[in-house]
Each structure stands twice: as structure tokens, then as C-alpha cells.
Design goal:
The complex is a heterodimer of chains A (451) and B (304).
Chain A: H1 2-21, E1 36-42, H2 49-63, E2 67-73, H3 79-88, E3 95-98, H4 102-106, H5 119-124, E4 134-135, E5 138-139, E6 141-154, H6 155-160, H7 165-171, H8 175-185, E7 187-188, E8 194-199, H9 206-213, H10 232-246, H11 259-267, E9 271-277, H12 280-293, E10 304-307, E11 319-328, H13 337-351, H14 357-361, H15 369-374, H16 383-393, E12 396-397, H17 406-428, H18 434-449
Parallel strand pairs in A: 1-2, 1-3, 8-9, 11-12
Antiparallel strand pairs in A: 3-11, 4-5, 6-9, 6-10, 6-11, 7-8
Chain B: H1 2-49, E1 52-53, E2 60-61, H2 65-71, H3 74-106, H4 110-125, H5 128-138, H6 146-152, H7 165-177, H8 182-193, H9 197-205, H10 210-221, H11 223-238, H12 242-248, H13 259-268, H14 273-298
Classes of the chains: A alpha/beta (451), B mainly alpha (304).
């Protein structure tokens, strides 16, 4: 009797396992349409994005009750790794929130969308925005907003130093002008600590990438695959950074400063300017000020100023921009054309007019006419920041990876990680000179990029 | 007729075997299956992958190319050098610290022993992530950092602990010295407690000095524990990853890139799973060689 019980329990368990591991049986909805499930991995794009997403999915399901949209909110810290593992195991989600990336396309799992794009959808996108989600002329994603990288400043410190920030927002500034202003912004504080003109982090490539774009180099390679970081232009850029550190306008500890420390220093009034900012900082800092007023936080309230990145005196100003949105993927075990169509339907629903709230919340340029119309005059950032963001967008520098051959883009990524970043850290730490780094870029470029 | 009898007798032997040992094998089956699915299968897959250019949709066989690439790669040799320095710089020092602490704790009363054991075991319980975050604050490069503030009291300028090549790897080693003794102390204390008192009494009768008792009784009888700590310590430090990943990202200028971090970078930054597998196998072979050498030269007079 007891043995029979054990056998039954084992059989029940086996049944449970086979049911759990079994293939989705699909089925048919009441209106005769085939049931399907679309998996979406996304991020908390802005403070209320999770609510927005639920609403977008609910609206979509009113029209398409046969399609179940399974959403998962990833953390910004761990999400990319989770996705990379899934992608390389051949089982990515159907939709993933990110900018288009050649390495994704290289896996053969990114889904080209051109055959699903109707003329109506294409016409709704503002000029130049759809291209931000294309690689080699093929559409792999639908942008949700355009991102824009700039510098962020503390208005009090700028005004105390007599810096005309409104003029900088409108007219930009050169490296010489910035250096002169940096001297005014750097000083000893009463508690003995230093107030720096500029703080960047030593762990990423963002700073050097933004500066090189403002010295006539779109990236390590240009869009034709020509190596750029091997001549006087890179040496000038490195020398500019070295001078800022040696004159004390930037901390000599830069190599060990991470993005969190950079933000902490900004909030503590230890720096006038931080080297990476987006217009959304304005909203975030307004919220922080409210928390300080409500007694939830301690610290100095800050008035935020969005500033363009200065450019070399002989080079035009450029703003680092791109797009983020949903990318579509198929799986190693392809679920077929019908499923792909459903994925696109969901993608369009998550990127349509109502989804424009993301660009609105983040104070970033809209990508679709319908979004701009729906959220007209509802911007949350200050008018000054919105105007500055708009002005900077006039000098947009598109990521070269969108035009670059995928193999070249992979080589460039490797060069940045294995050569450029370590050398930048050595520059920040005072261990290498601009001459030595330029020489190494040149020799490693020949070795890794073949030119 | 004879065949039928033979087959009936072998089937009844099988039934008897199942009745006597069936449950035992069933229970063994669970861990064996786990080992096959989660250890052996991934290891074999990784070995195969190390000879391939991996792509989820189009994997190609490239023979020994991944191994050739990694042996020609400067960063691989740098990471190898860093890993060896880290291992040499941490494992023996940790064993000495653990042994000295255990020796002093062993002299104490039971209640004090418990207190010290619990206190020194705490960092072992804390996750590596938490410890790394605490140490990032301790190594803060500005004058507000804990160590820099202390140095400031003596008029010493702030040191950029994690941001310069000359101090970054040492900083990770220092963190390791101060935080990973709990398990070793427990093992040493148990081993010390297992040494028969009669040996020390006999030594006392012969007027042996404290040093002689240590050198002739304590140390030799603790050798199996020391060997165990040495082997596991070397294996762990060859795989050091969390502190590098969280505190330095392998920088500055590859000064703290270890093999485990390089494997992660190769796999998850460049999606080169074939090369990462090859790097993993080189690491595994290194660990095996070092472990064999340790057993060969240190275990001759060890009794288990």
C-alpha cells in the first residue's frame, strides 16, 4: 500500500514535470484567432514607466485579446547581462529595450522589421529618427526617444563665478573658453576641500568619446571604417584632458572615481560641472529638491543647468545622440512568421503615440509626430533645459556603429575596451603621457584594426 | 530446460540485488544526475566550444585557433601575471594570519574562543558584494576616504588606492588579508583540539622549549589542515573575480585584470564564448598542475 503511494506520487511528479516543460500548446481565442504570447524585457525607463507599460499593454489587449504580453522589468545593473546570456543561448525575449547594436545583429537572431513597417508608421516618425534604429540600412528596432548626452552644471556655482551659462547654452563654448571658465570655477572651500570645475568618472569611455566628437572625430572609426584616433586630433584631446587635471580643474583622483561618486560630488557642491548628463537630470534634481524640502533628504538644493560639451577651437560642436527603444528578436527555435507579426504588433503598441510619455518624462526629443502632438506643452523639465536640449540636438552626431560594417564595429568595441579605456585610466592616473598614448593607439590600431 | 533455470536464477539474483540495494542506488542517482547535468555536461560543452567560434545560429569549428589567439594576447599574459601575484601575495599571508590568530584563540577560555570565532567568521558569512562596497568606501580616493582621512592625520596626501597601477592590486590583496580567515580559524582550532595532550606532557618531561613543542608537535600535526587551506586557498584566489568586477573593473590599465575577470570580459563584453572557454580550460589546467605540485611536495608525511 505504502509502495503504491510512493509510485503514485512519483507518477504525479513526472506528469507535473512533463507538463511544465512541455511546449506551449497555443490554442485558439473565442474570435477564432490563434493564441500567442509575446515576451517583453524592459527597464524602468523613467519613474512611472511600469504604470505606463501596464496601460499600453491593457490598451493593446482590448484590440488583440488573443495575444498575451508577458512583460519583465529588468534592473539597469543586471538586465544587460541577463539579456546577453539569453541571447547567446539562442533564447532571447521577443522584444528587448535597448539601442540597436551590431553585436546583436551578428548573432543572427535580431529580427529585421522592414517587411512589417507600413507607410503610415514610417510617415509618423520625425525625419532622421528611424535611421537611429537601423544597421546597414535594415530596421531592427523602433525608437522610443532620442537620447542626448551633455554636461550638467550647478547654477549657483556658475553664477558665483560669473559664468554666462545662458550664452553657453545658446552659442556653445570652445576648449579655450572652457579652460578659462574652469579657472574661475575651481577653488578651495571653507572646509578645506576643493571645488572642482569638472568631474568625470574614470571607469567609462563616455568622456573621451564626447570630447573626441567635438574634435572632428565621430568615433574611433568613422562611418567608412577609417581609423581616426591615431593623429594629432587625439593627441590634442588627450592633452586637453591632461591639462585640466594638472591645473587642478579636475580631480587627480579621476581614475578611481565611478559614476556614483561623480554624482555624489555634484550633489555635495564639490564640482561645478559633471561630464555626463541628460535633460532628465533636471526632473530628477527637481524631485530631489522636493525631497529636501519635505525633510526626506539632507543636502543642498541644486538648480540644474544643461550645458553643451565644449568643442576644440577649430572643430564644430557635436552632441552625442542616438535612440533607444524596442528591438525584436527571434529564437533559435523560430516560432514562425505569424508570431513575428504579433511581435511587431506589440512593438508598435509599445512605441506609439501614448508611449511618447517616455520622451516627455525624460525631457528628450520626441521621435514620432503623433507623440509630439499628444504631449505638446506637457514637458516636465524647465523651459531653459528643454530649449538647451533642442538647441544641442541641432548638432547631432549619430553613432557610427549604425553605418559601420558589423565586423568593424566589433573590432572597434574591442579596441575601446582593450586599448582605449586602459590608456585613459593611465592618463587620468598620470602614468602615461598623451604622446605615449597616441603612439600606442596608432600601433594597436594597426594590429587590431589593420590600419 | 537448463537455459530456463539459468535465466530464472539470474533474474531472481537481479531482483534480490534490487531489493537489497535498489533504494541506495536510487538515492545516489539524484546527486549523480545533478553532477551530470550541471557539472559534467557544461564542462564537456565548454571543452567543445573552446575549439569553435561560437554563434547561437552559426557555430563553426576552428580547431586550436582560440588557444593560439589567447597565447598571443598580451592581456592574457598580464592577467596571468596578476593572478599569480595575487595568489602568491594572499594565500601564504592568509595562512600565516589564520594560524597566528587560531594559535592565540586556542589559548583562551571557551567563552572567549566562541566570541572570537564568531567575530572572525562574520566576514565569511557576508557576501563578497557587500564587502566590496564597504571597501570601495574605505578606499575612497578623495581626502574623505577612511584610509586617506587616517593618513591625513599624519600629513600624508590622499592615495588613489584603486586608481593607479602601483597600488590597485595591492589594495585588493590587503582587502583579502583582512577578511577571509573565519573558515580557516575554525579548521585550525578543531585540528589543534585534536592533538593529544599526552604529546605535550611528554615534551614537558623532556624540558622541551615552547618553540620545540611548536616545531616538533603542533606544526607537523597541523600539516594536513595547512595543506587543505593551501590547496583550497590557491584554487579560490586563482578564481578571484567579485572584488575585481566591483572595485576596479580590471583597471587601471589592466593592473588588476585576473584570468577569471578576463574570461567574464571575453564572454560577456565581446560574446566570444569560444575564446572564453579556451581561457577557462587554461585556468583549470593551471589549477590542476599547481594542486598536484602542492600535494606532491607537501603531503609526503601527512596522515589522513
Amino acid at each position: 500500500m505504502r509502495k503504491k503511494g510512493i509510485m503514485l506520487a512519483a507518477a504525479a511528479m513526472l506528469l507535473l514535470l512533463t507538463t511544465a516543460c512541455g511546449k506551449d500548446s497555443g490554442g485558439t481565442a473565442a474570435d477564432g484567432k490563434k493564441k500567442d504570447t509575446v515576451v517583453v524585457w524592459t527597464y524602468p525607463v523613467h519613474g512611472t514607466y511600469e504604470d505606463d507599460l501596464k496601460q499600453l499593454v491593457a490598451n493593446f489587449n482590448k484590440e488583440h485579446p488573443e495575444i498575451t504580453v508577458q512583460t519583465e522589468m529588468l534592473s539597469w545593473a543586471e538586465g544587460p547581462q541577463k539579456f546577453d546570456v539569453a541571447l547567446n543561448a539562442g533564447n532571447p525575449p521577443d522584444l528587448y529595450f535597448h539601442g540597436v547594436d551590431g553585436s546583436y545583429v551578428n548573432t543572427g537572431l535580431a529580427l529585421p522589421l522592414d517587411s512589417y513597417m507600413t507607410q503610415e508608421i514610417k510617415d509618423d516618425y520625425l525625419p532622421g529618427t528611424l535611421e537611429l534604429a537601423q544597421i546597414g540600412g535594415k530596421q531592427y528596432g523602433l525608437p522610443l526617444y532620442q537620447f542626448e548626452w551633455a554636461w550638467g552644471a550647478n547654477k549657483r556655482i556658475l553664477e558665483e563665478a560669473g559664468i554666462d551659462w545662458k550664452s553657453i547654452q545658446q552659442n556653445g563654448w570652445t576648449w579655450s573658453e572652457f579652460t578659462a571658465d574652469a579657472a574661475k570655477l575651481t577653488k578651495k572651500l571653507p572646509d578645506g576641500s576643493t571645488q572642482y570645475a569638472l568631474v568625470t568618472d574614470g571607469t567609462s569611455m563616455d568622456f573621451i568619446e564626447m570630447l573626441t566628437r567635438n574634435n572632428n572625430m565621430p568615433d574611433v572609426l568613422d562611418e567608412n571604417g577609417q581609423f581616426q584616433w591615431n593623429d594629432d586630433r587625439i593627441k590634442q584631446t588627450l592633452t586637453f584632458i591632461q591639462n585640466l587635471i594638472s591645473k587642478g580643474y579636475m580631480p587627480k583622483e579621476t581614475a578611481a572615481i565611478d559614476p556614483k561618486k561623480r554624482t555624489d560630488m555634484f550633489y555635495a557642491g564639490q564640482t561645478a560641472i559633471i561630464s555626463k548628463s541628460i535633460p532628465y537630470y533636471d526632473v530628477m534634481i527637481q524631485n530631489r529638491n522636493k525631497d529636501i524640502d519635505a525633510g526626506k533628504l539632507q543636502g543642498e538644493k541644486i538648480d540644474f543647468v544643461l550645458l553643451p560639451v565644449p568643442h576644440n577651437d577649430n572643430a564644430p560642436a557635436k552632441t552625442t545622440m542616438g535612440a533607444e527603444g524596442y528591438l525584436a528578436f527571434k529564437q533559435k527555435k523560430d516560432k514562425g512568421e505569424e508570431h513575428a507579426k504579433n511581435v511587431f504588433l506589440v512593438m508598435e503598441a509599445l512605441s506609439g503615440a501614448e508611449a511618447g510619455n517616455s520622451a516627455n518624462e525624460l525631457a528628450l526629443p520626441f521621435v514620432r509626430k503623433s507623440q509630439a502632438e499628444m504631449f505638446k506643452d506637457k514637458g516636465l523639465a524647465s523651459q531653459e533645459t528643454l530649449d538647451a536640449a533642442k538647441k544641442m540636438a541641432e548638432n547631432m552626431s549619430m553613432p557610427v556603429t549604425l553605418k559601420l560594417d558589423i565586423a568593424k564595429a566589433a573590432q572597434m568595441k574591442q579596441f575601446k575596451n582593450q586599448v582605449a579605456l586602459p590608456n585613459m585610466q593611465a592618463l587620468y592616473a598620470g602614468e602615461k603621457t598623451p604622446d605615449a598614448i597616441t603612439e600606442e593607439f596608432s600601433s594597436k590600431g594597426k594590429q587590431m584594426l589593420g590600419q | 530446460m537448463r537455459t530456463t533455470v539459468a535465466s530464472r536464477s539470474s533474474s531472481s539474483a537481479f531482483m534480490r540485488f534490487c531489493r537489497d540495494y535498489g533504494w541506495a542506488y536510487l538515492f545516489i542517482l539524484a546527486p549523480v544526475l545533478l553532477f551530470l547535468v550541471f557539472t559534467l555536461y557544461p564542462v564537456i560543452s565548454a571543452l567543445i566550444m573552446s575549439f569553435q567560434h561560437y554563434n547561437p545560429m552559426n557555430t563553426t569549428w576552428i580547431g586550436l585557433n582560440n588557444y593560439k589567439t589567447l597565447f598571443q594576447d598580451d592581456v592574457f599574459w598580464k592577467s596571468m601575471r596578476n593572478t599569480v601575484i595575487f595568489t602568491i601575495g594572499t594565500v601564504p599571508v592568509n595562512i600565516v594570519i589564520t594560524f597566528v590568530l587560531s594559535y592565540f584563540i586556542f589559548q583562551m577560555k571557551n567563552s572567549w574562543q566562541t566570541l572570537f570565532k564568531a567575530t572572525l567568521y562574520l566576514p565569511t558569512v557576508a557576501s563578497g558584494v557587500t564587502l566590496s562596497i564597504v571597501w570601495i568606501a574605505i578606499y575612497d580616493p578623495t581626502s574623505t576616504g577612511l584610509i586617506n582621512r587616517f593618513l591625513g592625520l599624519f600629513g600624508i596626501d590622499p592615495v588613489i588606492w584603486l586608481g593607479q597601477s602601483s597600488t590597485a592590486l595591492f589594495s585588493l590583496m590587503l582587502m583579502n588579508w583582512l577578511g577571509s580567515h573565519g573558515a580557516g580559524i575554525i579548521l585550525y582550532l578543531a585540528a589543534m583540539g585534536g592533538i593529544p595532550k599526552s604529546l605535550y606532557e611528554a615534551a614537558d618531561i623532556d624540558h622541551a622549549s615552547g618553540w620545540t613543542k611548536f616545531a616538533r608537535i603542533t606544526w607537523p600535526l597541523l600539516k594536513p589542515t595547512t595543506l587543505y587551506l593551501l590547496v583550497t586557498g590557491v584554487i579560490t584566489s586563482f578564481q578571484v573575480f567579485i572584488s575585481v568586477y566591483l572595485m576596479t573593473h580590471g583597471g587601471p590599465n589592466f593592473a588588476t585584470t585576473t584570468i577569471a575577470y578576463l574570461i567574464y570580459d571575453t564572454a560577456f563584453k565581446f560574446y566570444d564564448f569560444g575564446l572564453a572557454s579556451a581561457q577557462s580550460f587554461v585556468l583549470a589546467i593551471m589549477i590542476i598542475i599547481v594542486s598536484v605540485i602542492q600535494f606532491k611536495f607537501l603531503s609526503s608525511d601527512v596522515e589522513y
